[in-house]
Design a protein that fits this description.
The structure is a single chain. The longest helix has 14 residues, at about 95-110. Helices cover about 30% and strands about 40% of the residues. The two termini are about 25 Å apart. The protein has helices at about 15-25, 55-65, 95-110, 130-145; strands at about 1-10, 30-40, 45-55, 70-75, 80-90, 115, 120-130, 150-160. Strand 2 and strand 3 (about 45-55) form a beta hairpin. The strands form 2 sheets. A 4-stranded antiparallel beta sheet has the order 2-3-1-4, with helices on one face. Strands 6-7-5-8 form a 4-stranded antiparallel beta sheet, with helices on one face. It is elongated and about 55 Å long. It has 2 domains: about 1-80, ACT domain (Alpha-Beta Plaits); about 85-160, Alpha-Beta Plaits, CATH 3.30.70.1150. The chain is α+β, with helices and mostly antiparallel strands.
């Protein structure tokens, strides 16, 4: 089993997301992340999908996606150098002054932005890789157990352009 990344260019029409996600659920494939957004061409949307699968299943998924009428292009990013980011919001509630000081320290180390706070709660925003966000969540769970709320968006990815990333 291996972490996989697929980029799909699809027609920007009603029902396309439902049909693509239905393909995964109909075959009992589990998605780790799915994000969709319109591209520079308003008639096309770009989907970034991450999943964990074996080689055989992954090849089957790519073939099924490629046969879908709405899918214009399927790109396998699994072994391609990419830039990938995921948005994460974490709210820490019931904070003491010491907690707030510690959260400001953590934000500097992790490159996190504190976007809102009052005397009792702090809201962090993080746009990092999935693994870096996992590390931040693990730390916050250890330090602020049962006082955090997590909102996690899907990952987006784009192929690297510089030779240093290849």
């Amino acid at each position: 089993m291996k972490k996989r990344w697929i980029c799909l260019f699809v027609e920007n029409e009603i029902g396309v997301l439902a049909r693509i996600s239905g393909l995964f659920s109909g075959k009992s494939y589990n998605l780790d992340s799915l994000t969709v957004g319109v591209t520079e061409d308003s008639t096309l949307s770009r989907m970034t999908i991450s999943l964990t699968s074996d080689d055989r299943t992954f090849e089957q998924i790519k073939k099924q996606l490629g046969r879908s009428v709405e899918v214009i292009k399927v790109i396998d990013y699994t072994d391609t150098p990419i830039h990938m980011k995921e948005i994460l919001f974490v709210k820490v509630n019931h904070c003491s002054d010491a907690d707030i000081t510690e959260l400001f320290r953590i934000s500097k180390v992790f490159g996190v932005t504190i976007i809102d706070y009052d005397g009792d709660a702090v809201l962090l925003e993080c746009t990092q890789t999935e693994n870096r966000n996992d590390d931040l969540i693990a730390l916050l769970k250890r330090k602020f157990a049962n006082r955090i709320e997590i909102v996690r968006g899907g990952s987006v990815a784009v192929e690297a352009v510089s030779m240093t990333e290849r």
